[in-house]
Amino acid sequence: MLKLLRPVVTRVLTPLGRALIRRGISPDMVTAAGTLGTVAAALFFYPRGELFPGSLVITFFVLADLLDGVMARMTGPGSVWGAFLDSTLDRVGDAGIFSGLVMWFVVSGQRTLAGVALFCLVAGAVVSYVKARAEGLGLSCDVGLAERPERLVMVLVSAGLGGLGVPYILAAGLWLLAAASAFTVVQRLLHVRRQAVSTSPRPLR
Q1: Rounded distance, CA 87 to CA 84, Å?
Q2: Mean pLDDT within 45-58
Q3: Would you name the residues annotated as active-site residues?
Q4: Is the pLDDT of residue 18 over 80?
Q5: CB burial class (10 A; 0-12, 13-18, 19+) of residue 71?
Q6: What are phi and psi for residue 26, nearest 5 degrees?
Q7: Rg of the Cα trace of the chain?
Q8: Of 28, 52, 160, 199, which alpha carbon lies 20 to 30 A from 153's?
Q9: Burial class (CB in 10 A: 0-12, 13-18, 19+), 86
Q10: Residues 18-24: contacts with CB under 8 Å, at least 24 apart
Q11: What pLDDT does residue 1 have?
């Protein structure tokens, strides 16, 4: 669903990306700055219970994940290092967001939700790992109900609305995200298994 919005967001971010490139700022620098800002904001605002301002600031930095892609396409076909760095720092950013929520839940005595947020973090990492490992074996794994953009929207919207005082929205959002992430793990495993059993066995390192 969110992939349909990518062309619109690309058109909006293109002038900014072009201006940054003219000033000698590389896509890798934007990726690193976005991740640093995301982690810093999550660990500063969320443990203090400032969920709404924290979600706004994090959303601003998360947009860097789209901006660096726009800039990379402007400067060429992209690099292996840039793709690797972007994927790696995505995991760091996710860890910062959910770690901040876990700390808030522990401080406020919401131990069950702390466990759910931790499960969302682990399940999200497994979702990404399954795809990376499958593609490393020459298989495709471009499926999934809850990919990273959907997961980010769910957690940031529910946290932001929860910070505004909307009752039960944060708990509902996290439980829904946990279920969607678990479903996506199974969905990707089955997708990869169907490909694996239909191909001729080959030696693996």
Answers
A1: 5
A2: 96
A3: 90
A4: yes
A5: buried
A6: -90, 160
A7: 18
A8: 28
A9: buried
A10: 18/74, 20/67, 20/71, 21/71, 21/74, 21/75
A11: 47
Kindly give, in sequence order, each residue whose CB lies less than 8 Å from that of residue 53, ignoring residues fewer than 6 positions away.
45, 163
Are 134 and 140 within 8 A, CB to CB? yes
83 Cβ contact list (under 8 Å, min separation 6)? none
SS3 sequence of 99-112 = HHHHHHHHHCCCHH
- Return mean pLDDT, the chain: 89
Task: Pick the more confident residue, 109 or 68.
Answer: 109
- The predicted structure's pLDDT at residue 62: 86
Query: pLDDT per residue over 112-134, tens digit each?
Result: 999 999 999 999 999 999 999 99
The tokens describing 120, both together, are 């969302």
**pLDDT of 77 above 70:** no
User: Among candidates 151, 154, 156, which has minimal Cα distance to 123?
Assistant: 151
Residue 54 structure tokens: 């924290």
- For the beta carbon of residue 42, count every other beta carbon within 10 angstroms: 27
Amino acid (one-letter) located at 199: T
